[in-house]
Amino acid sequence: MKGYQTLLVLTGWLLIDGQALAGSRLAGTGGVMQIEGASGGGLSPWGMLTGTVSEGEVAVTLGATRADVDDYHLVVSGVAANLYDRIELSYAHQRLALDTLGGNQVQEIYGAKLRLFGDVLYRPWGVWSLGVQHKALIEGQALARAVGARDTQGNDIYLAGSKLFFDAFAGRNLLVNTTLRSTKANQGGLLGFGGDRGNHRELMIETSVGLFLTPDWIVGAEYRQKPDNLGFAGEDDWRDVYVAWLISKHLSLTGALLDLGDIAGLERQRGGYLSLQLSL
């Protein structure tokens, strides 16, 4: 929990110092807090940094998510800081409850994302960022080893690009995102890293689109490709369709329908999630 405490201290310092702002970018262009703590969609990080701040501004984001599928539910809490629209630091705590099998898998994720170049609104190629996520199981290591994982901690490295197209469809703005992730995580790391089928990094593709129906409502879809390292059970790609309500520049609520495929031998894990985000 040291990472969480550090970022909470940073949050308090920014608030006391008066530097945490709503931001000068358009609402929605910072995404939401994805399940690993980074700014993005629910499943994948995006090229933008958290919040709606520009250079010279700072922001702090708090997020809470619950996802329920047929045989599992996942609870995520996180905090992220955007420093001058150049670097994002994040922490996420994940607890996966094995409702059918019994027990819990708990993972901590420490993230950093560096904006390399570009602008989501005004540059033809959008904005591009390089990120890393250090993941470590703090409960459930024995289960991960039992199903064939080689390690219980690992690092994901990703390159993400995002672009907002004005008046792209029926006069409405369209947000498009592409992420390339180098990983060997099983089920995002909740079942460890590597396995008997493979213990090397693979490059996975993640994509999403979001259509602004109004300045306050976005509908979209996400796709996240997954590695398949464990021989005892295949691992499927993740998909969702979502609706996000931008209540204000400070507050948003996102709901989605999930299709996570087979997880640890239990078939057709489908359901939904709700995510609440507060940006300061």
Describe the protein.
The protein is mostly beta strands. It has one domain: monomeric porin ompg (Porin). Helix content is 8%, strand content 52%. The protein has helices at residues 2-17, 141-146; strands at residues 32-33, 39-40, 58-69, 72-83, 87-98, 104-118, 127-139, 153-169, 172-183, 202-214, 217-224, 238-246, 251-259, 270-279. The strands form two sheets. Strands 3-4-5-6-7-8-9-10-11-12-13-14 form a twelve-stranded antiparallel barrel. A hairpin with a 4-residue loop joins strand 12 (238-246) and strand 13. The two termini are 22 Å apart.
Quick tags:
globular, mainly beta, two-stranded antiparallel sheet, DUF3034, 280 residues, 2 helices, Porin, twelve-stranded antiparallel barrel
Taken from the alpha-carbon principal axes, the silhouette is: globular
Q: Which stretches of 5+ consecutive residues score pLDDT under 50? A: none
CATH homologous superfamily grouping: monomeric porin ompg
User: What is the typical, i.e. mean, pLDDT?
Assistant: 90
Record the SSE blueprint.
Elements: H1 2-17, E1 32-33, E2 39-40, E3 58-69, E4 72-83, E5 87-98, E6 104-118, E7 127-139, H2 141-146, E8 153-169, E9 172-183, E10 202-214, E11 217-224, E12 238-246, E13 251-259, E14 270-279
Antiparallel strand pairs: 1-2, 3-4, 3-14, 4-5, 5-6, 6-7, 7-8, 8-9, 9-10, 10-11, 11-12, 12-13, 13-14
Provide a concise account of the structure shown.
This protein has 280 residues and is mainly β. The protein contains 2 helices and 14 strands, in the order H-E-E-E-E-E-E-E-H-E-E-E-E-E-E-E.
